[in-house]
Design goal:
The complex is a heterodimer of chains A (about 290) and B (about 425). With about 290 residues, chain A is an all-alpha fold. Chain A is built from 13 helices and 2 strands; from the N terminus they run αββαααααααααααα. A two-stranded antiparallel ribbon of chain A has the order 1-2. By secondary structure, chain B is α/β, with parallel strands linked by helices. Classes of the chains: A mainly alpha (about 290), B alpha/beta (about 425).
């Protein structure tokens, strides 16, 4: 009995070592650092809450926070809508469905830098294919600088993110749709329900938990997204697409202000923490199981 | 449990000993961080130099390559973890940043030694490596820009080569034709393109404007001269002389703009000329290189370059010095620099390979280069303003939000003030 309890702890030890070594301890160090002024190469000086106070008053932080919310909100909404369409289409039986399923997964599979550079090329202000296409069909008379225009740059980066992320929504929702029992649909058919009504009153309620889970996961990933934005705009022009991760990167590695950068990251924690809490709660409910 | 502990400790000690013995048996080894250049011959030349140095001295040289952005991260990590290499190479801003941290070895002896052998430095690059009375870095090569001009397009509109920035604006306006994807001036204010920070500074200085004053800490950006420059850019933007996506260009997009025939003029280093020779030699008959355009305060160009630094904690500082001297040996150094990079000693510019009049324009422009803090010294503040591309953001904001030059200058002064305040503290 004694040996059994000893073994029990031994078996969970690797998890705790990994958890505290790779997450707990670095998080503690990072949190501690936010109370210091730490520039790369110079000793850390204790300054209490000054980093937070400075960030809260910094207009660049306000702009980055707003940009993060717009980018995340727009992207997740786009991915959800497109993912739902994809799932609904692939839930129907038709020839070539398996091939189409594979093809629609491509944006999700392609390495992020490859898709980012492709989007750069698509959006190129003079020789990009989007401009060439619109010029050819006569919709525009002169090329548009998609990534250099105040009004188009944010929608453009959101579209690139939606394109990359919607297959995750699509395939997850498709999996959810395939386990919905047939009976409610058959009953709805007998009652003469339209396809829209079936979708609204049977499909959506059955997918509610799954939608919540994928939305939360995607929100966390998109909020932290760095490479796509960095390659497409580096937060420009003039900070119009500068999100919190980009601001943090610039503070840490261009200005060498490690502690201020970590403080920016810490500001993201409460919001992401709430989302993670909701996610874990939902995953523990009997419905989710 | 005790036995297991003893075995683990013994294994670790054994492993460490074998590692140390193997290093001792292999002789000394220099580790050097080096920035990868987009000219393959240069990268290969440095690797080759490492191999030849080992043959001559028995000291192995490990060159650790990294791209510009990665090199910055590499240095940052090495500083924080006390794992700096023996020596390292990098952009002009590094020596000042690192000297301030006290991690650089003084190298005045080596610089004096090189000057004795090759004569004085060519162009104003010393402020990047000499702080106070001592040298902390060795200038390795200079990057000098020249105005690349499509003579065929200027001839079409009956204009001669531009002498001043006003001439550039006139020529750019007259040759712009967006419907044919032709733009007069293939530069812009993108925060992702360091060349943009260079041409804007060249222009500011030639109009008598600057970010910092002579003492290096007073912010002097708010001036009628800066307003004049911003007005030039605004007027140019409205006349569409800049490619529309120049606000968002990446690193080499101005080069592409030239090579694709989109731009009538660009402000660039010799790399574009070299690419033109290799990729589109027929373009050489239709273009020329022009000296830095003049403004009311004369001709100015931005001085950048690469510097070699020896780190204080190096186990082999003498071998590191020897390796630097080895790189400067005439034949080796000429092979590395011709025709891309401007040598730091005048004597090397007399070597065969620099006779072409197009290449000589870059050498001529060396006479008007100024360092980042001009008219003051190179400071960490000036370096940070440059690295954070604050001028690019300022110009972009003026264009995007249709602000007046005065409005946009006032908007960006606090950002520069914050940098000064932080470094002064």
């Amino acid at each position: 009995m004694k040996r059994e309890s000893w073994e029990k702890y031994l078996l969970v030890l690797p998890f705790f070592l990994i958890f505290f070594g790779l997450i707990g301890y670095p998080l503690y160090i990072a949190f501690k650092l936010t109370f210091y002024q730490k520039t790369i190469g110079l000793p850390a000086v204790f300054i209490g809450m000054d980093n937070y106070a400075q960030i809260v008053q910094d207009p660049m932080f306000h702009r980055a926070l707003w940009n993060s919310l717009v980018y995340t909100g727009g992207s997740v909404l786009g991915k959800l809508l497109l993912g739902l369409v994809m799932a609904l289409a692939l839930n129907e039986a038709f020839r070539g469905r398996a091939i189409l399923r594979g093809m629609l997964m491509l944006p999700w599979i392609v390495p992020i830098f490859v898709s980012a550079y492709n989007w750069r090329w698509i959006y190129d202000g003079t020789l990009g294919i989007l401009n060439l296409f619109l010029l050819q069909i006569g919709l525009i008379q002169e090329p548009i600088a998609w990534l250099g225009n105040l009004h188009t740059v944010m929608p453009c980066v959101i579209i690139a993110n939606v394109w990359r992320g919607f297959p995750f929504f699509g395939i997850s929702l498709l999996a959810g749709m395939q386990v919905i029992p047939r009976e409610p649909y058959e009953a709805a058919d007998v009652d003469g329900a339209s396809s829209v009504q079936r979708f609204l009153y049977i499909t959506i309620p059955n997918l509610k938990i799954l939608i919540l889970v994928v939305v939360i996961l995607s929100t966390i990933w998109t909020f932290n997204d760095f490479p796509l934005l960095w390659i497409l705009t580096a937060g420009g022009p003039a900070g119009v697409t500068e999100t919190l991760p980009i601001l943090g990167y610039k503070l840490a590695f261009i200005s060498a202000l490690i502690s201020k950068a970590v403080s920016v990251a810490m500001f993201m924690l409460p919001l992401l923490g709430i989302l993670i809490y909701i996610l874990t709660r939902q995953l523990r409910t009997p419905t989710a199981k | 449990m005790k036995i297991a502990k003893t075995v683990i400790v013994a294994l670790l000690v054994g492993w460490q000993c074998s590692l140390s013995l193997s290093v001792m048996a292999g002789g000394p080894k220099l580790t050097a961080y080096w920035q990868r250049w987009h000219a393959k011959y240069y990268n290969e030349g440095i690797n080759q130099a490492g191999r030849e140095f080992e043959k001559r001295t028995g000291c192995k040289v490990e060159i650790v390559w990294a791209g510009g952005e990665d090199l910055r991260l590499k240095y940052n990590m090495a500083i924080e973890t006390n794992t700096l290499p023996d020596l390292g190479e990098g952009m002009a801003f590094y020596p000042k940043m690192f000297q301030r941290l006290g991690i650089l070895e003084q190298t005045s002896d080596l610089v004096e030694n090189l000057v004795e052998q090759y004569g004085d430095f060519y162009g104003e690059i010393i402020p990047y490596s000499k702080f106070g009375e001592a040298f902390y870095a060795i200038p390795f090569f200079t990057i000098v820009e020249a105005l690349h001009v499509r003579t065929d397009r200027l001839a079409q509109v009956g204009l001669s080569l531009p002498e001043t920035w006003e001439d550039v604006l006139t020529a750019a306006k007259k040759t712009t034709n967006p419907k044919k994807h032709i733009y007069g001036f293939g530069e812009g204010p993108s925060r992702s393109n360091i060349d943009h920070a260079k041409w804007m500074r060249a222009m500011l200085w030639s109009y008598g404007a600057s970010v910092f004053g002579k003492n290096g800490t007073t912010i002097t950006l708010q001036s009628p001269q800066t307003t004049q420059v911003l007005q030039w850019i605004k007027e140019g933007w409205e006349a569409k002389i800049f490619p529309p996506d120049a606000l968002q260009w990446g690193g080499g997009d101005n080069n592409k703009s030239w090579l694709s025939g989109q731009a009538t003029m660009i402000w660039n280093a010799a790399s574009t000329l070299s690419d033109t020779r290799e990729e589109i030699p027929e373009l050489l008959d239709k273009c020329t290189m022009v000296k830095a355009p003049a403004g009311p305060a004369g001709r100015k160009a931005f001085a950048s370059g690469h510097f070699i630094m020896i780190f204080k904690d190096s186990a082999y500082p003498d071998l590191a010095r020897e390796f630097v001297r080895f790189l400067f040996e005439k034949e080796r150094y000429s092979k590395l620099t011709i025709p891309y990079l401007v040598p730091v000693f005048e004597v090397f510019t007399r070597e065969p390979g620099w006779e072409d009049p197009l290449d000589r324009v870059f050498l001529e422009n060396t006479s008007c280069i100024k360092t980042v803090g001009y008219p003051g010294p190179v400071t960490v503040m000036a370096c940070e303003v440059m690295n954070r591309m604050i001028l690019a953001d300022m110009v972009s904001s003026m264009i995007l939000y249709d602000l007046t030059p005065e409005e946009v200058i006032s908007k960006f002064i606090p950002q520069i003030e914050a940098i000064v305040k932080r470094w002064q503290n």
